[in-house]
Amino acid sequence: MRYSTIVEKNDKTLLEIIEMLEQFEKDKFIAGLQMRHYSQFQIDQTLDMVRSYQARMNIEVRALAKFSESFIQQFATDNNKCFSAAQKYFNRIRSTLCALKKVFQMTCRKSMAQLPEGTEDPSVFERSPLGKGAYMVDMYGLASYNEAVQQLYREMDTLLTGATQTLALCHQMIENEDMIRGDAELLKSIYQNSCQQLMSSVREYADMMEAPVQLPDTELDKRRRKARSMDDFLRAEYHNVAKQEFKKFVWLEAVRQGRNDGLTEEETFLWPENHEKVQAVRWAIENFDMMDVEGQQGKLDSVSVVCFLKWCGVERAKEKRLYQYFCDTYKGKYHPLVWSSVSKERKEQRERGVTDRGAAATFQRMLDAVTELVAV
């Protein structure tokens, strides 16, 4: 008779395994060894095996903990929407599950009996004394065994304790997801933050192809229109939409809003949350030469350019792209600087203690002087 090591990837299984692991004790451990009549050689081999699984599990649990730090705060993930929440976590703890299956399997009684046709193989978790299997208590206890057996118990106790913590973290993540789906305000905040992060990322933006004249309807657009409300839409799509699909949805939605406000795609990327700023930036570039911006050899002054970039109010990571936008838009009489000169001046200003706010205020004063001049 063979034992089944199949684990159903659902929340119920998580809780059942956690419950079994929490009941691990010396008597169950001894019973498991006695069922298989382990020799000293087998004890030593098992000890090495448990230690190797512990090392792999340590790597896995650290990765899971790191994953858990940001996962809940991301609206879209790379997990296919057809998977349940529990499956996503089971797929991340393969080494932990493999270790548990092996440990439970090696403590099941060997049996050559043939099961009746059509009968499913019994589960190692059901038959092992470490799980739900019956066992006899050894009257002499663990103290009667040699140091190798006692060391194996300690190592296995550490392994199963770590596995319990790993599975408990998975279960906690599932509960957190359910909690967020029930909190409309928190869910909306996560959605908005995820949209802002995508629109703020130069790398993510570079992955998007140029928007066509006629913006397409994505599948996510269709699902949003079918939803009874935005809250229902967010609950349904949270952690169920692929990240690439979400990126496309966010970008096209931003382009639609930008076009409605008269912005180009580049302007939408630079000021996704502040469309009103674009008109002020356009006016500033158009009247740039009316300010004191002349540098050396007929070029623009690097200090003025950096102050302009800070006044525009975009993230630092976007400033190189902003400067390219400036160069494409500027039609004045001075020659634009190469980016390396601008970047050098930006660094030197920081070293001199000039804050972004201070640089922006400097440019605002320059702009106010031009505004007064034009008004006259």
Architecture overview:
This protein starts with 10 loop residues before the first helix and ends with a helix. Residues 3-7 and 80-84 have low confidence and may be disordered. By secondary structure, the chain is mostly helical. α1 packs antiparallel against α7, α3 (40-71) runs antiparallel to α5 (94-105) and α15 crosses α18. It has 18 helices and no strands.
Distance between the termini: 98 Å
Q: What is the H-and-E element order?
A: HHHHHHHHHHHHHHHHHH
Give the integer mean of the pLDDT values. Answer: 80
Individual helix count: 18
The Rg value, from CA coordinates, equals 32 Å
Shape: elongated
Sheet with the most strands, sense and barrel status: none
Q: pLDDT under 50 segments (min length 5)?
A: 3-7, 80-84
List keywords for this structure.
single chain; 376 residues; mainly alpha; 18 helices; 64% helix; 0% strand; elongated; disordered N terminus
Write the layout of secondary structure elements.
Elements: H1 11-22, H2 26-36, H3 40-71, H4 85-90, H5 94-105, H6 124-127, H7 147-181, H8 184-200, H9 202-207, H10 219-226, H11 230-237, H12 243-260, H13 265-270, H14 276-286, H15 302-312, H16 319-329, H17 339-351, H18 356-375
Helix pairs in contact: 1-7, 3-5, 3-7, 5-7, 15-17, 15-18
How do you describe this structure in short?
The chain is mainly alpha-helical.
